[in-house]
Amino acid sequence: MCAGSSWEFGWPMATSKQLQLLTVSPIAPEVLQGLTSSPKRLPSKLFYDEIGSQLFEQITELPEYYLTRTERSILEQYAGEILEQAGPSLTLVELGAGTAAKTCILIDELLERQRRALFYPIDVSPSALEEAVRQLGRQFPALRVNPIVADYTGGVPALSRISGRKLVLYIGSSIGNFEPDHSVCILRRIRQTLRSGDALLLGADFAKSSRILLPAYDDAQGVTAAFNKNILARLNRELEADFDVEAFRHIALWSRRCSRMEIYLESLAAQSVFVAALDLDISFRRGERIHTENSYKYTDAMIESILRDSGFTLEHSWCDRKKWFGVHLARV
Hints:
Shape: globular
Number of helices: 10
Structural class: alpha/beta
Oligomer: single chain
Strand content: 25-35%
Number of strands: 15
Helix content: 25-40%
Distance between the termini: 33 Å
CATH superfamily of the largest domain: Vaccinia Virus protein VP39
């Protein structure tokens, strides 16, 4: 870890039953709940172990995956305007930061405006945060990086202890992984830890043709399929499950009615799986699916509604020429 950096921890409190499962593994409660539900599901945050985080970095570089490069182009073009709108003397916070690759654009611009800066990347993946600390430490000696290992969806109380004006980055359209009501709850919890004058920068993918969306979530090289299947491999590694990963296939569907991409793992045959750490037998029918992710695609009205309902005031939006992606600044 680079000198001048520190770690903070932000895991939410759990019930006594959850604590019993947490002694098995931090992921055990949600895995048990999801695999015993009908239909079966697994939370998308389970994608991001060390292997999953590496696969996602590969996804962001795929020709079909327009989201990262489009958002990056917006940040490169408008970084100065964004920081000017956010206000002076900023401390940056990023939810679901990963390796913070795109954030470098804003950090570079911020350090042109102020001699030193603080950055708090928040993520569930310690390995991704370690990489962020290494990379940012080398690139920006005047930046102090304070990573926080946390599931930000339950709120991050540590944010209320950060002094000064904050700009919270929630980019990459990560908000699209949550149901609209849940996304409002997440943003509301974050807002409760902020002060008057603080701001949120929300990156969100716009609804568009399925001809563009489907390849972005089912690429020709199969990297997205490997990323999706890694969630089963993770259960094998961490919960002593015996999933035959190749007995499931990656499914990506566009639901125009719900305005979202839906991601599944589909069983190729009738089969049984044993999760030893949970003492759990699971049966699958041929064609039965595990729902692993939603990715909502937004209209302007949807963005305004989510921000308003969570207590933020939308101040300004920036988008690319094709209006494939938008970056929105909202004020507490």
